């Protein structure tokens, strides 16, 4: 007998959600653990969503979207359909560049003061 839970193929919208969360997380260079911390969820829950085993409730979708810097509807946008997704990609690049600059400045400042 086949286990119905395992045999069930996820809905297309669930696959889209999983892919968009993974891609947005990847653009921000967030691990599942980082996303979980920022969204006040567990790492295992984020993993289950990303492999389509769990489907978050609206309140949880809001937490995930907020942590990724997205609006909830953007988690369901098909690839190549909209300026919003391109805007998020640009913002993610800017975020990573700023984060790198801040880390370098902080490190230089700490080094300077540790010599004193």
Q: How would you characterize this protein structure?
A:
The protein is mainly α. The chain has a single domain (8-115), classed as lambda repressor-like DNA-binding domains (434 Repressor (Amino-terminal Domain), Orthogonal Bundle). Helices cover 69% and strands 0% of the residues. The protein is built from 6 helices and no strands. The protein has helices at 4-7, 12-27, 32-39, 43-50, 58-68, 83-115. The longest helix is centred in the last third of the chain and has 33 residues, at 83-115. It is elongated, with a radius of gyration of 18 Å.
CATH topology: 434 Repressor (Amino-terminal Domain)
Name of the level-1 CATH class: Mainly Alpha
CATH homologous superfamily caption: lambda repressor-like DNA-binding domains
Helix coverage percent: 55-70%
Number of domains: 1
Structural class: mainly alpha
Written as H for each helix and E for each strand, in order along the chain, the element string is: HHHHHH
Separation, N- and C-terminal Cα atoms: 72 Å
Under the CATH scheme, which architecture would be assigned?
Orthogonal Bundle
What integer is the average pLDDT?
85
Number of helices: 6
Unreliably modeled segments:
none
Largest sheet: none
Approximate strand percentage: under 5%
The coarse silhouette is elongated
């Amino acid at each position: 007998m086949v286990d119905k839970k395992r045999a069930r193929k996820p809905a297309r919208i669930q696959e889209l959600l999983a892919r968009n969360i993974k891609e947005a997380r990847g653009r921000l260079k967030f691990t599942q653990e980082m996303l979980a911390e920022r969204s006040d969820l567990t790492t295992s829950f984020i993993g289950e969503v990303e492999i389509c085993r769990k489907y978050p409730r609206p309140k949880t979708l809001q937490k995930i979207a907020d942590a990724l810097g997205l609006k909830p509807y953007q988690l369901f946008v098909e690839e190549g359909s909209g300026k919003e997704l391109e805007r998020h990609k640009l913002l993610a690049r800017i975020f990573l560049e700023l984060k790198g600059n801040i880390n370098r400045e902080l490190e230089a400042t700490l080094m300077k003061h540790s010599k004193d």
